[in-house]
Amino acid sequence: MIKKEMIAMLLAGGQGSRLGVLTSKLAKPAVAFGGKYKIIDFPLSNCINSGIDTVGVLTQYRPLRLNQHIGIGIAWDLDRSIGGVTVLPPYEKSENSQWYTGTANAIYQNIEYINYYNPEYVLILSGDHIYKMDYEVMLEHHKSMGADITLATYEVPIEEASRFGVVITDDEGVISEFEEKPEKPRSNKASMGIYIFNWSVLKAALEELKDVPSCDFGKHVIPHCHQNGARVVAYDFKGYWKDVGTLGSYWEANMELVDIIPEFNLYEEFWRIYTKSDMLPPQYIDEEGKVTESIVGEGTEVYGEVSHCVIGSGVMIKKGAVVRDSIIMNGTVIGEGCIVDKAIIAENVEIGGDCELGVGEEAPNEKKPNIYSFGLVTIGEDSVIPDGVKIGKNTAIFGPTDKSDYPDGLLKSGSSLIKVGDEA
Asked: Which of 169, 195, 331, 353 has the greatest number of beta carbons closer than 10 A?
């Protein structure tokens, strides 16, 4: 019989609606990060660096490209005959078929997979955070505390604590109370959505709560276990951790990579971040090209000027173009003479010549002010921008556009121009 000490279950089915047009065609964990990686590369790399060789990846929303990226796990050394990485989409069962309706429901629907490995402990992870963590150290803490459940916690500024589930602990780190997104938080210890469970405790809770609609770990499973006498402890994580769930936090996390002394270092030898890489030629900087304080991916050609940017692979920045404080993803073309200020441009976008992105004063986005903010220009993948247009701040564009879409050659600040699919 197979027996694993701990296996990981990685929740990667989220739509990531707060990333707007960036996730119109793909799941949030498949969004590019740092010029070379996908967001999901970070928890997957943490697993293999922590000695965890069995990972179930639970997918749901637009899983195709995420599945293609993971493949059989070769990039992370997770192509194992026993264990390795397994993609677990919802599937048809004989008695009933249903989508995953909550984080805990997704695990419940895969009890059979977990039972196959008969683990002592199950590690629950989110697929949409940027961080490096040794889960082996967290497991040692779990054991030394005699815990049934361990929550990784992170100290956030008290004024931001209402955005998180927060915990209240005693002097030893045992959790006495939970508050889910409290209006007036009494603690700044935020749950990171990373949990270690004794499998016997988790399995019993999932069976008992199987009929709860949209069953979730933070709202249902952990409070249920706590009320029934489980010993729940906190593991204080002190490293870098970023939830890149909003355009602002996603942009900030990328920009922090190109600081003179980056807070989050992609270049550490002892804790590498692995990814599936395409075979591409080296980058090329023309004699008239200039690159400062930037990450530039393989196969990218720079004939213009790039400063404080994260540029993906296979990007073309033509002569006379100036790109500042921006994220440009794989395969995008920036036309001659363009000026791009503080933009997030997704994959395979064509920006015509002599365009200006990020012009004028800020105005709240007319359709989704809570998503398209931070003064950013956000352009979804495969979009086309015609020559010579100007685009304001807090704007969103998705799809092939032409001159007629820009009155007087301008998309004013706070506007959305969505030409394909649902309103994003």
From this structure: 195
The CA-to-CA distance between both ends of the chain, in Å, stands at 48
Pairing state of beta strands 165-169 and 175-180? antiparallel
pLDDT tens-digit profile of 278-325? 778 999 999 999 999 999 999 999 999 999 999 999 999 999 999 999
- Please say whether the beta carbons of 333 and 384 come within 8 A: no
Residue located via tokens 């990814």: 275
Which tokens go with 56?
């179930």
CA gap 36, 75 in Å, rounded = 13
290-292 and 316-317 strand pairing: unpaired
- With CA atoms as reference, report the closest residue to 4 among 115, 137, 142: 115
Rg (CA), the chain: 23
Which of 231, 225, 221 lies closest to 146, judged by CA? 231
What's the rounded Cα separation, in Å, for the pair 34 and 29? 13
How many angstroms separate the CA atoms of 318 and 302, rounded?
A: 7
Q: How far is the CA of 334 from the CAs of 271, 314, 324, 356, in angstroms? A: 34, 12, 12, 11
User: Percent of the chain, pLDDT > 90?
Assistant: 65
Q: Nearest-5° angle of CA 169, CA 198, CA 187? A: 15
Residue 56: phi, psi to the nearest 5? -95, 125
Strands (DSSP E) found in 84-209: 84-88, 121-126, 129-131, 149-155, 165-169, 175-180, 189-198
DSSP 272: P
Helix H or strand E encompassing 143? helix 135-144
CB 234 within 8 A of CB 151: yes
Contact criterion met (CB below 8 Å) for 12 and 288 = no
DSSP 8-state class, residue 9: E
Structure tokens at 64: 């195709």
Tokens 């706070």 -> residue: 414
Nearest to 365 by CA among 285, 249, 247, 255: 247
